[in-house]
User: Fold this.
Amino acid sequence: MAEIVWIIEETGEKRFPYRLTIKKNDSILLRLRVQDRWPPEDGYVFCIREKEDKTYDHPLRELEREEVISFKKFGKKISIVLGRKKNRSCDFLFLKKPYKRKEGEYEQIFWTVGEPQRLHRPRVKVAKTFRRDLQILVSKDEKRPWKFNREIIREDVLPKDTYGLKKHMDIEAVVKRKSFKDMIDAIRDINRLHEELEGIKTYKYAALVIEAYY
Assistant:
């Protein structure tokens, strides 16, 4: 089987001090100029493609070389898993934006691990009206809860990362929230995923929401 490798090199340039290359044998799958060696947990690293005729004033210094154990394309996104314990999985999001003052499009590339939602918000509107006889609940362990136009109540009884709708004294519906990365990790540990789904199955209405780029 062909080996895929991940290489980070130091360029010495101010704006893009590193070059990231993913190679399969002698073929380059991806080569980007990047602003950091790894993205922050809840942010991104801005990248640009390196042109074929790009030259540097001095030889590049190799800083990292790792085996790539998974290289997957999902529409506008490439997901990577490296063969190491720390800083192991990440995504590259490729977006097309129209020029403001001329025709055509340009490419924006974001390297992420935490999937910050501000990069690609869906063009939808959520109704602001709400039934007064319903209460919004959220599990107490939720670190960054969704925002609503009314008060939310922290609730011990809900499973982890779960939201609920309470009518009178009963929880009528629940939503289990997962990031794309969390879902992939859960699939790898399928028994854990089954346990989590069993935790919401007992409610009258239950849904699983996966936050991902499309």
Observations:
- The two ends are 30 Å apart (CA to CA).
- The chain has a mean pLDDT of 84.
- The chain is about 10% helix and 45% strand.
